[in-house]
Amino acid sequence: MPGKFCVSLSFAKDNTDKATVAFVVANAALGSEKETMVFLSTEAVRLSQAGYADDIHEAGFAPLKELMENFAANGGKIFTCSPCFKRRNLDENNLVAGAVIVGGAKLVEFLSDGSPCVSF
């Protein structure tokens, strides 16, 4: 099944349930052979930092760190909103595997062919 799939995430420790479910869905999309991207914006950009998700574990799900690692290891892309990242003074040298800091144009480019996108 060729195609693309986008998950847009704006939550981190301010709503760990949404952050976890977003990566569950993203991994499911990868498992369905979709080119999959998670777009981190607002508070979710904090998830781009190594160590930040280490203590997030919602009951009934794998730990968020594991979900994110599996996503990246299987070819998933984690696009991190540049202005959101800079506003929070995060460390470009401390990115998790698969994370890339991008501008909004990169999201538009990914979605421009009609890619479905779900938001959390």
What would you say this structure looks like, in words?
The protein is α/β, with parallel strands linked by helices. It has a single domain, classed as Hypothetical Protein Ychn, Chain: A, CATH 3.40.1260.10. The chain has four helices and five strands. It has helices at 16-31, 64-73, 82-87, 104-111; strands at residues 4-9, 35-40, 77-81, 99-102, 117-119. The protein has a five-stranded parallel sheet. Helix 3 (82-87) links the parallel strand 3 (77-81) and strand 4. Helix 1 runs parallel beside helix 2 (64-73). The radius of gyration is 13 Å and the shape is globular.
* CATH architecture heading: 3-Layer(aba) Sandwich
- Count of the domains: 1
What proportion of the residues is helical, as a percent range? 25-40%
**Beta strands, count:** 5
Q: Identify the CATH class.
A: Alpha Beta
Q: How many whole angstroms does the radius of gyration measure?
A: 13 Å
- Give the SSE string: EHEHEHEHE
Please report which band the strand proportion falls in: under 5%, 5-15%, 15-25%, 25-35%, 35-45% or over 45%.
Answer: 15-25%
Q: Helices and strands: which structural class?
A: alpha/beta
- Report the end-to-end length measured between terminal Cα atoms: 24 Å
Shape: globular
